[in-house]
Amino acid sequence: MEVKKVPIVKSILSANDQVSYTNQKLLDQKGIFSINIMASPGAGKTSFILQTIKILSVNRKIGVIEGDTAPVTIDSDKMTAVGIPSVQINTGGDCHLDAMMIDEALKQLDLAKLDLIIVENVGNLICPAAFKLGTHMNVLIASVPEGDDKPYKYPAMYRGVDVLILNKIDLLPYVTFNQDYFLQGVKMLNPNLKTFLVSCKTGEGISVWTDWLAEHLKAKKK
Amino acid sequence: MEVKKVPIVKSILSANDQVSYTNQKLLDQKGIFSINIMASPGAGKTSFILQTIKILSVNRKIGVIEGDTAPVTIDSDKMTAVGIPSVQINTGGDCHLDAMMIDEALKQLDLAKLDLIIVENVGNLICPAAFKLGTHMNVLIASVPEGDDKPYKYPAMYRGVDVLILNKIDLLPYVTFNQDYFLQGVKMLNPNLKTFLVSCKTGEGISVWTDWLAEHLKAKKK
Predict the structure, then answer these.
(1) Exposed end of chain B (fewer CB within 10 Å): N or C?
(2) What is the predicted ipTM?
(3) How many domains does chain A have?
């Protein structure tokens, strides 16, 4: 019953892929590394970005692009409050960011003054997986209270990312979450997925991630 | 940049609305009440359905339709384990159920033997809001660890539902969740939304919901 939609989706994806390519080319020319953060609603994307900024902005010039389905500025206001330049994208109800939206957002940032851009995608475990943005690294944030079965239920998302963050590990004592079952599901889909266990609330594990990212950025520069 | 998609979405919605109408007509003829449960991934849809069944299946003949984006039977297996007839729909990556999928699923249930059908939609706070299924009641499950800003960020979903369940209230002592801010956002979008506070883990508040639903079903029969 989905057949009728296939040709349409294909043409959108193809246009999206083209713009995604030019986005990455522009970022490369400017020497900017970029990260696309995806997660279900409330997994802690904004808190994770704020924690990352707190450590990395000492040595890096960071900008943020915030995606939401509604015309709100809750997340970009949080970035502005800590002195980080940010652009808010309202998708107008759409369930994901796309490369054209990022193209528009990049025009509103002073790229000469940045060396890292973090994109916060719309809260959704399905749609964002299908749309490349032109970013260099796809990061998925899972969270403990979401449950340990998510890799099995949202395989496309887990398959397509470069880094996995398991957030809210401070809640492990209070919820049923079988870490082995979760990680087994992840391994099945994405065997070498770089994985970090963190709590954005307590800060646990954050520096392991930022140290790794800093090393990764250094290696890219060489 | 979204203009090109409008005519397509419109035609899909129109076909969907027609099938949604015939689904509800069929359910009415059979004297079956039906509920569409929506939520973000991991808010507790399956646990909520299991808790509801535990109480209501004493007096009601219940069937369940499970929607997932991947070919898994994790949720429908849980229903079968408690003796509830269930149908699993694999959307093939699509981010929501639609009326055509429900039409197919209803053919696989023995409708003469049921008086309540619970549909578990795909875990997503955006797409399912736009697709009527033909069910009689739309229920949204929010969960405490998702955060108190979700009504502000996903207004279409909060605006379109008849009942709101705030789940995982057992986690209130361990997370930052301003209940007033959350409920204020809900009220702004959907002023008279019937709201229940529950914990599917401890069972707290579940009987308040099932008592209300049982009364609602009785009133419908009159």
Answers:
(1) C
(2) 0.88
(3) 1
